[in-house]
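Working notes for the structural subgroup meeting. M.R. asked for a predicted model of this chain before we commit to crystallization trials. I am recording the input and output together here so anyone reviewing the notebook later can reproduce the run.

Input as submitted:
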Amino acid sequence: MARHRLAVLLSVVLIGLPLASLGAQEAAPEAEEGIGGGGAMPGVVLLDLAGLNERLAANGYAPLPEMVIVMGGGGYGGEVRGLRFGGLGWGGDATSLQGQKVATFSIGFGGFMVERGLFAGRGYSLSLGAVIGGGGADLDLLDHRSTSFDDALSNPANTALTRGFFGVQAYAGLEFALLDWIMLKVNLGYLWTLGEPWKQAGLPLVGPPESLSAPLVQVMVTFGGRGTLEEGPEE
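Returned structure, recorded in token form:
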């Protein structure tokens, strides 16, 4: 999971935050208000791991929870009632324990974000958006605990599988202005994925889940705000 989480953070830093500042400052002159900022975004992804859990149970592992808590972040900027651009990424994992057997499922996703602001009131705004990018998942299995270093070499206890995917996360976002420079943004959406099967050291191993597509809910605390483009931030 470490490499997926690192890729997510890099996508946020290299894509999201610079575009957030540019979007807020360089929105179209005819727009009445600009919006922009960035921050942390925790959330929940509801995965379908039924097929995987059946295989795990058949081999002595406890089932994995299908509700995965994820952490991420991003940045965006543009028009309150128009186009916005930025970047968004997240990642998380779920673990099960049965005796000495441990199963850990990790997932991460990040990419380029585009939104369309639909309408706004004084302290809120509604938008539709999509994140286009990629991610991956890891499945790490510990069958038993080694008694010594030599035992770990002669009788390996770990199995590590990984898979990558192209994804599109579509969502509806609702923003609330808490202060002039802090907003609360709630995204309700769905992640569609198209990817490869599990691999072990480059060797394909076809197995569940067939798809990593899932609904998700995310809450973002955004440091930035709204302001009239001609006159600067609202007082």
